[in-house]
Automatic annotation (TrEMBL), chain A:
The keyword Disulfide bond applies. This is SCO family protein. Cu cation binds at C95, C99, H183. Gene3D superfamilies: Glutaredoxin (3.40.30.10). It comes from Pontibacter fetidus. Disulfide bonds join C95-C99. Keywords: Copper, Disulfide bond, Metal-binding.
UniProtKB/TrEMBL annotation, chain B:
InterPro entries: Cyt_c-like_dom (IPR009056), Cyt_c-like_dom_sf (IPR036909), Cytochrome_c-type_DH (IPR051459). This is Cytochrome c. GO terms for molecular function: electron transfer activity; heme binding; metal ion binding. It comes from the Bacteria. The keyword Iron applies. Keywords: Heme, Iron, Metal-binding. Residues 25-114 form the Cytochrome c domain.
Length: 227, 140
Protein backbone atom coordinates (compact mmCIF):
# COMPACT_ATOMS: atom_id res chain seq x y z
CA UNK A 1 0.00 0.00 0.00
CA UNK A 2 2.77 2.33 0.98
CA UNK A 3 5.03 1.52 -1.91
CA UNK A 4 2.89 2.76 -4.85
CA UNK A 5 2.04 6.06 -3.09
CA UNK A 6 5.71 6.75 -2.45
CA UNK A 7 6.58 5.99 -6.00
CA UNK A 8 3.95 8.31 -7.42
CA UNK A 9 5.06 11.11 -5.07
CA UNK A 10 8.59 10.76 -6.31
CA UNK A 11 7.28 10.78 -9.84
CA UNK A 12 5.30 13.93 -9.20
CA UNK A 13 8.36 15.69 -7.79
CA UNK A 14 10.44 14.69 -10.78
CA UNK A 15 7.70 15.84 -13.16
CA UNK A 16 7.28 19.20 -11.39
CA UNK A 17 11.03 19.73 -11.31
CA UNK A 18 11.22 18.96 -15.00
CA UNK A 19 8.47 21.41 -15.88
CA UNK A 20 10.01 24.13 -13.71
CA UNK A 21 13.42 23.66 -15.26
CA UNK A 22 11.94 23.71 -18.74
CA UNK A 23 9.90 26.81 -17.98
CA UNK A 24 12.91 28.61 -16.50
CA UNK A 25 15.17 27.68 -19.37
CA UNK A 26 12.55 28.73 -21.87
CA UNK A 27 11.86 32.06 -20.20
CA UNK A 28 15.56 32.82 -19.85
CA UNK A 29 16.18 32.22 -23.50
CA UNK A 30 13.13 33.94 -24.86
CA UNK A 31 13.17 37.11 -22.77
CA UNK A 32 16.16 38.96 -24.20
CA UNK A 33 15.07 38.17 -27.73
CA UNK A 34 11.59 39.62 -27.28
CA UNK A 35 12.67 42.62 -25.19
CA UNK A 36 12.08 45.96 -26.88
CA UNK A 37 12.34 49.58 -25.85
CA UNK A 38 9.41 51.97 -26.11
CA UNK A 39 9.41 54.92 -28.50
CA UNK A 40 9.09 58.06 -26.41
CA UNK A 41 7.19 61.19 -27.25
CA UNK A 42 3.89 62.10 -28.82
CA UNK A 43 2.50 59.91 -31.53
CA UNK A 44 0.01 60.80 -34.20
CA UNK A 45 -2.34 58.62 -36.16
CA UNK A 46 -2.19 59.53 -39.82
CA UNK A 47 -4.77 58.13 -42.20
CA UNK A 48 -4.06 57.44 -45.82
CA UNK A 49 -6.03 55.87 -48.62
CA UNK A 50 -4.77 52.75 -50.33
CA UNK A 51 -7.02 51.25 -53.01
CA UNK A 52 -10.06 52.86 -51.49
CA UNK A 53 -9.25 51.51 -48.02
CA UNK A 54 -8.25 53.67 -45.09
CA UNK A 55 -4.97 52.69 -43.48
CA UNK A 56 -3.88 54.26 -40.22
CA UNK A 57 -0.18 54.84 -39.72
CA UNK A 58 1.34 55.79 -36.40
CA UNK A 59 3.80 58.63 -36.73
CA UNK A 60 6.28 58.87 -33.85
CA UNK A 61 8.20 61.86 -32.59
CA UNK A 62 11.37 62.07 -34.65
CA UNK A 63 14.47 64.19 -34.12
CA UNK A 64 14.56 66.74 -36.99
CA UNK A 65 17.58 67.45 -39.16
CA UNK A 66 20.35 69.39 -37.48
CA UNK A 67 23.71 70.91 -38.27
CA UNK A 68 26.43 71.61 -35.72
CA UNK A 69 30.23 71.73 -35.63
CA UNK A 70 32.34 69.39 -33.51
CA UNK A 71 35.73 69.68 -31.78
CA UNK A 72 37.55 68.97 -35.06
CA UNK A 73 35.56 71.67 -36.92
CA UNK A 74 33.73 68.91 -38.78
CA UNK A 75 30.09 69.34 -39.62
CA UNK A 76 27.87 67.04 -37.58
CA UNK A 77 24.41 66.48 -39.04
CA UNK A 78 21.70 63.84 -39.15
CA UNK A 79 23.97 62.14 -41.73
CA UNK A 80 26.65 61.64 -39.07
CA UNK A 81 24.28 59.52 -36.99
CA UNK A 82 22.41 57.91 -39.89
CA UNK A 83 21.76 54.23 -39.21
CA UNK A 84 23.44 54.47 -35.81
CA UNK A 85 22.36 54.31 -32.23
CA UNK A 86 23.39 57.45 -30.40
CA UNK A 87 23.40 58.89 -26.92
CA UNK A 88 23.08 62.63 -26.49
CA UNK A 89 23.26 65.17 -23.69
CA UNK A 90 23.56 68.91 -23.05
CA UNK A 91 26.31 70.45 -20.92
CA UNK A 92 28.90 73.23 -20.82
CA UNK A 93 32.61 72.96 -20.10
CA UNK A 94 32.69 75.45 -17.24
CA UNK A 95 29.70 73.90 -15.46
CA UNK A 96 30.43 73.59 -11.76
CA UNK A 97 27.42 71.49 -10.77
CA UNK A 98 26.26 68.29 -12.46
CA UNK A 99 28.38 68.22 -15.65
CA UNK A 100 31.56 66.62 -14.29
CA UNK A 101 29.45 63.78 -12.93
CA UNK A 102 27.60 63.49 -16.24
CA UNK A 103 30.84 63.40 -18.16
CA UNK A 104 32.37 60.77 -15.90
CA UNK A 105 29.27 58.64 -16.47
CA UNK A 106 29.25 59.30 -20.23
CA UNK A 107 32.87 58.21 -20.20
CA UNK A 108 31.65 54.80 -18.98
CA UNK A 109 29.29 54.59 -21.96
CA UNK A 110 32.18 55.60 -24.21
CA UNK A 111 34.46 52.92 -22.78
CA UNK A 112 31.73 50.30 -23.12
CA UNK A 113 31.06 51.02 -26.82
CA UNK A 114 34.20 52.69 -28.17
CA UNK A 115 34.88 49.74 -30.47
CA UNK A 116 31.32 49.49 -31.78
CA UNK A 117 31.00 51.31 -35.13
CA UNK A 118 27.21 51.52 -34.75
CA UNK A 119 27.35 53.75 -31.67
CA UNK A 120 27.98 57.50 -31.50
CA UNK A 121 27.95 59.93 -28.57
CA UNK A 122 26.82 63.51 -29.09
CA UNK A 123 27.33 66.18 -26.41
CA UNK A 124 25.93 69.65 -27.08
CA UNK A 125 27.27 72.71 -25.33
CA UNK A 126 24.57 75.10 -24.14
CA UNK A 127 27.17 77.86 -23.77
CA UNK A 128 28.35 78.30 -27.38
CA UNK A 129 29.68 81.78 -26.63
CA UNK A 130 32.35 80.34 -24.34
CA UNK A 131 32.57 76.79 -25.68
CA UNK A 132 34.11 77.42 -29.06
CA UNK A 133 35.58 74.67 -31.25
CA UNK A 134 38.99 75.32 -29.66
CA UNK A 135 37.61 74.98 -26.13
CA UNK A 136 35.76 71.78 -27.01
CA UNK A 137 38.87 70.46 -28.73
CA UNK A 138 40.94 70.92 -25.59
CA UNK A 139 38.18 69.41 -23.45
CA UNK A 140 37.94 66.28 -25.61
CA UNK A 141 41.70 65.91 -25.88
CA UNK A 142 42.16 66.07 -22.14
CA UNK A 143 39.36 63.53 -21.76
CA UNK A 144 41.31 61.44 -24.28
CA UNK A 145 38.38 60.46 -26.49
CA UNK A 146 38.09 59.93 -30.25
CA UNK A 147 36.18 62.56 -32.22
CA UNK A 148 34.55 59.98 -34.50
CA UNK A 149 33.01 58.29 -31.51
CA UNK A 150 32.22 61.22 -29.25
CA UNK A 151 31.32 64.52 -30.90
CA UNK A 152 31.30 67.64 -28.73
CA UNK A 153 29.25 70.07 -30.75
CA UNK A 154 28.66 73.78 -30.75
CA UNK A 155 26.71 76.03 -33.09
CA UNK A 156 23.96 78.58 -33.25
CA UNK A 157 22.66 79.20 -29.76
CA UNK A 158 18.97 79.06 -30.67
CA UNK A 159 19.41 75.91 -32.75
CA UNK A 160 21.04 74.18 -29.78
CA UNK A 161 18.23 75.16 -27.41
CA UNK A 162 15.62 74.11 -29.98
CA UNK A 163 17.30 70.74 -30.31
CA UNK A 164 17.31 70.33 -26.52
CA UNK A 165 13.54 70.68 -26.65
CA UNK A 166 13.34 68.10 -29.43
CA UNK A 167 15.29 65.69 -27.23
CA UNK A 168 13.05 66.54 -24.23
CA UNK A 169 16.00 67.93 -22.31
CA UNK A 170 15.51 71.09 -20.30
CA UNK A 171 18.11 73.78 -20.95
CA UNK A 172 18.08 77.52 -20.41
CA UNK A 173 20.24 80.46 -19.49
CA UNK A 174 19.72 81.33 -15.87
CA UNK A 175 21.71 84.05 -14.14
CA UNK A 176 20.40 82.81 -10.81
CA UNK A 177 22.22 79.49 -10.79
CA UNK A 178 25.89 78.64 -10.38
CA UNK A 179 27.56 78.73 -13.78
CA UNK A 180 24.80 80.80 -15.42
CA UNK A 181 22.90 77.97 -17.10
CA UNK A 182 20.40 75.47 -15.84
CA UNK A 183 19.86 72.22 -17.60
CA UNK A 184 18.79 68.69 -16.87
CA UNK A 185 21.39 65.94 -16.65
CA UNK A 186 19.57 63.49 -18.86
CA UNK A 187 21.16 61.14 -21.35
CA UNK A 188 18.82 60.40 -24.24
CA UNK A 189 19.05 57.21 -26.26
CA UNK A 190 18.19 57.65 -29.95
CA UNK A 191 17.75 54.84 -32.44
CA UNK A 192 18.79 54.63 -36.08
CA UNK A 193 15.49 56.19 -37.20
CA UNK A 194 16.03 59.15 -34.85
CA UNK A 195 13.32 58.06 -32.46
CA UNK A 196 13.90 58.59 -28.74
CA UNK A 197 14.07 55.21 -27.05
CA UNK A 198 15.15 56.01 -23.52
CA UNK A 199 15.75 58.74 -20.96
CA UNK A 200 18.35 58.30 -18.19
CA UNK A 201 19.69 60.32 -15.28
CA UNK A 202 23.22 61.07 -16.41
CA UNK A 203 24.38 61.61 -12.85
CA UNK A 204 23.14 58.27 -11.51
CA UNK A 205 25.45 55.32 -11.95
CA UNK A 206 22.60 52.77 -11.74
CA UNK A 207 20.59 54.56 -14.42
CA UNK A 208 23.62 54.73 -16.70
CA UNK A 209 24.05 50.97 -16.15
CA UNK A 210 20.48 50.65 -17.44
CA UNK A 211 21.39 52.77 -20.48
CA UNK A 212 24.37 50.56 -21.29
CA UNK A 213 22.08 47.50 -21.13
CA UNK A 214 19.34 49.17 -23.19
CA UNK A 215 21.85 49.98 -25.89
CA UNK A 216 22.52 46.27 -26.30
CA UNK A 217 18.81 45.72 -26.88
CA UNK A 218 18.66 48.50 -29.43
CA UNK A 219 21.74 47.26 -31.29
CA UNK A 220 20.24 43.79 -31.44
CA UNK A 221 17.02 45.24 -32.83
CA UNK A 222 19.06 47.04 -35.44
CA UNK A 223 20.73 43.78 -36.47
CA UNK A 224 17.35 42.10 -36.90
CA UNK A 225 16.11 44.90 -39.10
CA UNK A 226 19.16 44.69 -41.30
CA UNK A 227 18.72 40.97 -41.93
CA UNK B 1 23.18 68.11 50.18
CA UNK B 2 21.01 65.68 48.29
CA UNK B 3 19.56 68.48 46.19
CA UNK B 4 22.95 69.84 45.22
CA UNK B 5 24.16 66.39 44.21
CA UNK B 6 21.08 66.03 42.01
CA UNK B 7 21.80 69.39 40.41
CA UNK B 8 25.42 68.39 39.81
CA UNK B 9 24.33 65.19 38.08
CA UNK B 10 21.84 67.00 35.87
CA UNK B 11 24.35 69.66 34.93
CA UNK B 12 27.05 67.08 34.34
CA UNK B 13 24.83 65.00 32.09
CA UNK B 14 23.73 68.04 30.10
CA UNK B 15 27.30 69.21 29.65
CA UNK B 16 28.39 65.74 28.57
CA UNK B 17 25.54 65.44 26.08
CA UNK B 18 26.26 68.86 24.61
CA UNK B 19 29.94 68.07 24.30
CA UNK B 20 29.38 64.72 22.58
CA UNK B 21 26.91 66.41 20.25
CA UNK B 22 29.55 68.99 19.51
CA UNK B 23 32.20 66.42 18.73
CA UNK B 24 29.88 64.35 16.56
CA UNK B 25 29.05 67.38 14.46
CA UNK B 26 32.68 68.38 14.15
CA UNK B 27 33.71 64.93 13.10
CA UNK B 28 31.24 64.93 10.26
CA UNK B 29 31.78 68.53 9.28
CA UNK B 30 34.65 67.81 6.91
CA UNK B 31 32.63 65.15 5.14
CA UNK B 32 29.58 67.40 4.92
CA UNK B 33 31.62 70.27 3.53
CA UNK B 34 33.19 67.95 0.98
CA UNK B 35 29.76 66.78 -0.17
CA UNK B 36 28.54 70.35 -0.34
CA UNK B 37 31.44 72.10 -2.05
CA UNK B 38 33.77 69.57 -3.66
CA UNK B 39 31.95 66.38 -4.55
CA UNK B 40 30.19 67.50 -7.73
CA UNK B 41 33.54 67.94 -9.44
CA UNK B 42 35.93 65.70 -7.51
CA UNK B 43 33.30 62.91 -7.23
CA UNK B 44 32.13 60.90 -4.24
CA UNK B 45 35.18 58.67 -4.39
CA UNK B 46 37.61 61.54 -5.04
CA UNK B 47 38.49 60.25 -8.49
CA UNK B 48 37.96 63.55 -10.33
CA UNK B 49 37.36 63.50 -14.10
CA UNK B 50 39.88 62.00 -16.48
CA UNK B 51 42.26 64.64 -17.79
CA UNK B 52 40.03 67.50 -16.70
CA UNK B 53 39.53 67.49 -12.95
CA UNK B 54 42.39 66.22 -10.79
CA UNK B 55 41.73 63.42 -8.33
CA UNK B 56 41.77 63.86 -4.57
CA UNK B 57 42.16 60.13 -4.03
CA UNK B 58 45.80 59.13 -3.60
CA UNK B 59 46.89 62.51 -4.96
CA UNK B 60 50.54 63.39 -4.46
CA UNK B 61 49.60 67.06 -4.71
CA UNK B 62 48.05 66.92 -1.24
CA UNK B 63 51.49 66.21 0.20
CA UNK B 64 53.67 68.23 -2.14
CA UNK B 65 51.51 71.36 -1.84
CA UNK B 66 50.27 70.78 1.70
CA UNK B 67 50.80 74.38 2.81
CA UNK B 68 48.93 75.90 -0.13
CA UNK B 69 45.74 73.88 0.13
CA UNK B 70 43.98 76.10 2.66
CA UNK B 71 44.27 79.16 0.41
CA UNK B 72 43.35 77.04 -2.60
CA UNK B 73 40.06 76.04 -0.99
CA UNK B 74 39.24 79.58 0.06
CA UNK B 75 40.29 81.47 -3.09
CA UNK B 76 40.14 78.86 -5.83
CA UNK B 77 42.80 78.10 -8.38
CA UNK B 78 43.63 78.93 -11.97
CA UNK B 79 46.25 77.80 -14.43
CA UNK B 80 47.99 74.47 -15.00
CA UNK B 81 48.52 72.00 -12.16
CA UNK B 82 50.27 68.62 -12.18
CA UNK B 83 48.74 65.84 -10.09
CA UNK B 84 50.22 62.33 -10.11
CA UNK B 85 52.18 63.20 -13.24
CA UNK B 86 49.19 64.42 -15.25
CA UNK B 87 48.68 68.05 -16.14
CA UNK B 88 45.30 69.61 -15.50
CA UNK B 89 44.23 73.10 -16.49
CA UNK B 90 40.79 74.00 -15.36
CA UNK B 91 39.81 76.79 -13.02
CA UNK B 92 38.59 75.73 -9.60
CA UNK B 93 36.15 78.08 -7.87
CA UNK B 94 37.02 78.89 -4.28
CA UNK B 95 34.66 79.01 -1.32
CA UNK B 96 35.43 82.37 0.29
CA UNK B 97 32.66 81.96 2.87
CA UNK B 98 34.38 79.07 4.68
CA UNK B 99 35.72 79.86 8.16
CA UNK B 100 39.18 78.79 9.34
CA UNK B 101 37.80 75.93 11.46
CA UNK B 102 35.68 74.67 8.55
CA UNK B 103 38.68 74.68 6.23
CA UNK B 104 40.66 72.77 8.88
CA UNK B 105 37.98 70.09 9.12
CA UNK B 106 37.62 69.86 5.37
CA UNK B 107 41.38 69.54 4.88
CA UNK B 108 41.66 66.87 7.55
CA UNK B 109 38.83 64.93 5.96
CA UNK B 110 40.54 65.05 2.57
CA UNK B 111 43.99 64.22 3.95
CA UNK B 112 42.75 61.14 5.82
CA UNK B 113 40.19 59.70 3.39
CA UNK B 114 40.07 58.55 -0.27
CA UNK B 115 43.09 56.35 0.36
CA UNK B 116 45.10 59.30 1.71
CA UNK B 117 46.96 58.80 4.97
CA UNK B 118 48.55 62.19 5.32
CA UNK B 119 49.35 64.40 8.29
CA UNK B 120 46.43 66.25 9.83
CA UNK B 121 46.36 70.03 10.29
CA UNK B 122 45.92 71.89 13.53
CA UNK B 123 43.59 74.84 13.70
CA UNK B 124 46.35 77.41 14.48
CA UNK B 125 48.39 76.01 11.59
CA UNK B 126 45.56 76.63 9.13
CA UNK B 127 44.94 80.07 10.60
CA UNK B 128 48.53 81.06 9.85
CA UNK B 129 48.33 79.63 6.33
CA UNK B 130 45.21 81.63 5.59
CA UNK B 131 46.80 84.87 6.77
CA UNK B 132 49.41 84.57 4.04
CA UNK B 133 47.14 83.82 1.10
CA UNK B 134 48.25 85.47 -2.14
CA UNK B 135 45.62 87.97 -3.22
CA UNK B 136 45.08 86.08 -6.41
CA UNK B 137 46.24 82.55 -5.95
CA UNK B 138 48.33 81.32 -8.85
CA UNK B 139 50.01 77.96 -8.98
CA UNK B 140 53.41 77.53 -10.50
Amino acid sequence: MNQPTNYSLKQTIVAVAFILTAALTYSCQSNPATETLPILGEREAVERQVNGKTIVDTVYHQIPDFSFVDQDSQLVTQETVAGKVYVTDFFFTTCPSICPKMKSQMLRVYEAYKDNPNVVLLSHTIDPKHDTVAVLKEYAERLNVETDKWHFVTGDRDSIYDMAMQYFVGAQEDKGVEGGFSHSGHFMLIDQNRHIRGKYEGTEQADVDRLIEDMKVLLKEQQHEKK
Amino acid sequence: MRKSRFTTIVFGATALLTLTQCFTNKQNQGQKLYAQHCQSCHMEDGSGLRGLIPPIANADYLQTHRNELACLIRNGADGPMVVNGIEYNKAMPGVPTLREDEITNLLNYIQTNFGNKNKRYTFPEVEVMLEDCPVEHKRD
